[in-house]
Amino acid sequence: MTSHSPIPLAGVIGTPVAHSKSPRIFRHWLTRFGVRGHYIPMDVAVQDLETALRALPRLGFVGVNVTIPHKEHILEIADLVSDRAALTGSANTLVFRDDGMVHADSTDGHGFMENLRSNVPDWDPVQGPAAILGAGGAARAVVASLLNAGAEEIRLSNRTRARSEILGKDFGARVRVHDWNEAGDMLKGARTVVNATSLGMVGHEKLQVPLGELSDDAVVTDLVYAPLETEFLAQARRIGCQTVDGLGMLLFQAAPGFERWFGIAPRVDDQLRQAVLS
Ligand code: NAP
After folding, report:
1. Do residues 124 and 229 share a domain?
2. Do 186 and 209 contact (CB within 8 A), yes or no?
3. Structural Rg of the chain based on CA atoms
4. d(CA 148, CA 182)
5. What's 134's domain CATH number?
6. Residue 55 sits in the same domain as residue 166
7. Parent domain of 200
8. What is the predicted pLDDT for the residue at 3?
9. Average pLDDT for runs of 10 along the chain of length 278
10. Closest residue by Cα to residue 230 from 203, 212, 252, 253
11. Active-site position among 21, 71, 188, 206
């Protein structure tokens, strides 16, 4: 890129968007790798989403992240949808292509897998059943990525059973639905356990699934990252499980966007974690 070429712009679209940690992640990488570029949070209302999306490429944007509440609706607006976004039913990373097309991708599953792999190098989803609490958008991304990595049995439990049944139907026989009031039972023999509900997050109720059946060789992760160690993770750690917090997933899911927009594969490391937490 010459000094006369436009400075690439990227950002995050949501409403509200002030809470988003993405600007800290991207600004850390832009500075660290000395990349010319800017990353801007943009509060865009649902009714303005399509207009904003069509205008951004003309203003010099190369792509954007998409956050709540636009992650599902964006699939109807995008011109091209990746397989994993279609499977997940949502997208968080848009690329504005040179031919004018908006390409939507979902990197949540990638973030989930990379977070576990980097924190527990010998973790492999084929080692045994996975138990997932929740059946929202994040749970869909987790299920899709575990199946893609070869998991043979995924046990799923959600407060609203109908939602987990839909997920089970969409993903096939390897996903088995359990009642929410029996969620503790599905932890028996599970090697991977995931909280994909919003329970345990600051300002939300606690996750109160009994952990009596959890064995100490399970790898337990929580997608909630505020607080960094949820009560659920703390209990699992006391049982002797390896635990992985959800912040890493957030960091890893950002990396593919940075690479596509700014041309450098960024590192997820402790410096980045500290920059985001500070
Ligand atoms: P979502 O689509 O709104 O789903 C929320 C999930 O939480 C549903 O399964 C819902 O069950 C469950 N839930 C909410 N309140 C509950 C309650 N009182 N009792 C039992 N279950 C309850 O949200 P999402 O996008 O999947 O996100 C889920 C969590 O993951 C959020 O905390 C989000 O911040 C986090 N997340 C983290 C990352 C990361 O990078 N670390 C990425 C994505 C999401 P019902 O279906 O019964 O309502």
Report:
1. yes
2. no
3. 19
4. 27
5. 3.40.50.720
6. no
7. 109-245
8. 53
9. 76 95 97 96 97 96 96 96 94 96 97 98 97 95 96 98 96 97 97 97 95 97 96 98 98 98 97 96
10. 203
11. 71
Q: Name the domain count of the chain.
A: 2
Q: Is 147 part of any domain?
A: yes
Q: What pLDDT, on a 0 to 100 scale, did the predictor assign at position 6? A: 85
Mutate to test the pocket of ligand 1, among 74, 198, 231, 253 (most ligand atoms within 8 A of CB): 198
**Do residues 157 and 269 share a domain?**
no
Q: Which amino acid is at 118?
A: S
138 C-beta closer than 6 A to ligand 1: yes
Query: Does a structural domain hold residue 2?
Result: no
Judge contact between 262 and 108, C-beta under 8 A: no
CA angle 171, 73, 96 (to 5 degrees): 100
Ligand 1 center–CA 199 separation, angstroms: 7
**Cα 85 to ligand 1 centre (Å):** 18
Half-sphere exposure of 91 (CA within 13 A, CB side): 25
Q: Can you say how many angstroms the Cα of residue 70 is from the centroid of all Cα atoms in its chain?
A: 14
The pLDDT assigned to 181 comes to 96
Q: CB atoms < 10 A from the CB of 173, how many?
A: 7
At 4 the pLDDT is 66
**pLDDT score recorded for residue 129:** 98
